[in-house]
């Protein structure tokens, strides 16, 4: 009887020691029920930088159409010219600019831009700019128009594929109709053309 009691006691002791010194249980993995699926994670919208939401200012000499359809005869009373986002002619569309005659020899891209320009008989207003700042205004004026204009004009049909040249002129149909000061040789314009290697 004494032997049986000792045997049982020894068995209980071994069992208790085994439970206390056993290998630690592996950590419990986090419940997948509490994890947020990837597809439902909220992503903040990417804010557009100013360069992507505002027009890029064309460096150097350029000619812009006006953003609003301003009749050329109203140009003289405007204190501010709102330009289109993209110039109709940039410095890259110009091969050379003749200082004495204000003739512009166009590149192939420049000729295509001018050739595709729609001009009504009462003209289409533009602004000559340097670094996006208007220096003076004028109007594209087609040679078939019967209306006169007393400002700066460019005849778009003057250029051909074989002779891609346009001229910034005084008045239409000729200089006798022009009134005011000649702004074409503004030093800022000539300097920009000189720096671009276009002036001759």
Helix-and-strand structural type: alpha+beta
**Overall number of strands:** 7
Kindly, what is the distance between the CA atoms of the first and last residues, rounded to a whole number of angstroms?
127 Å
Largest sheet: 7 strands, mixed
**Gyration radius, rounded:** 39 Å
| Secondary-structure element series | HHEEEHEEEEH
Runs in which pLDDT lies below 50 for 5 or more consecutive residues are: 1-56
**Helical content (DSSP H or I, runs of 4+):** 10-25%
* Morphology: globular
> Beta-strand percentage?
15-25%
Task: Please state the average pLDDT score.
Answer: 77
**How many DSSP helices?**
4
Strand order of the largest sheet: 1-4-5-6-7-3-2
Report what the structure shows.
- With 200 residues, this protein is of the alpha+beta class.
- The chain has a domain at 57-195.
- The chain is 20% helix and 21% strand.
- Strands 1-4-5-6-7-3-2 form a seven-stranded mixed sheet.
- β2 and β3 (103-106) form a beta hairpin.
- The longest helix is centred in the N-terminal third of the chain and has 20 residues, at 2-21.
- The protein starts with a helix and ends in a 5-residue tail after the last helix.
């Amino acid at each position: 009887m004494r032997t049986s009691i000792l045997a049982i006691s020894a068995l209980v002791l071994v069992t208790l020691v085994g439970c206390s010194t056993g290998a630690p249980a592996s950590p419990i993995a986090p419940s997948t029920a509490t994890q947020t699926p990837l597809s439902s994670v909220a992503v903040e919208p990417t804010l557009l930088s100013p360069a992507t939401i505002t027009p890029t200012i064309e460096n150097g000499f350029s000619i812009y159409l006006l953003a609003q359809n301003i009749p050329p005869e109203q140009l003289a009373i405007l204190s501010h010219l709102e330009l289109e986002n993209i110039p109709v002619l940039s410095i890259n569309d110009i091969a050379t600019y003749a200082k004495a005659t204000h003739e512009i020899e166009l590149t192939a891209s420049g000729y295509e831009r001018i050739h595709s320009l729609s001009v009504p008989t009462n003209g289409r207003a533009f602004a000559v700019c340097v670094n996006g700042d208007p220096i003076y205004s004028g109007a594209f004026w087609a040679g078939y128009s019967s209306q006169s204009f007393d400002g700066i004009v460019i005849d778009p049909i003057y250029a051909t594929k074989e002779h891609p040249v346009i001229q910034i002129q005084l008045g239409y149909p000729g200089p006798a109709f022009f009134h005011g000061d000649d702004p074409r040789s503004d030093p800022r314009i000539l300097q920009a053309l000189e720096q671009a290697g276009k002036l001759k």
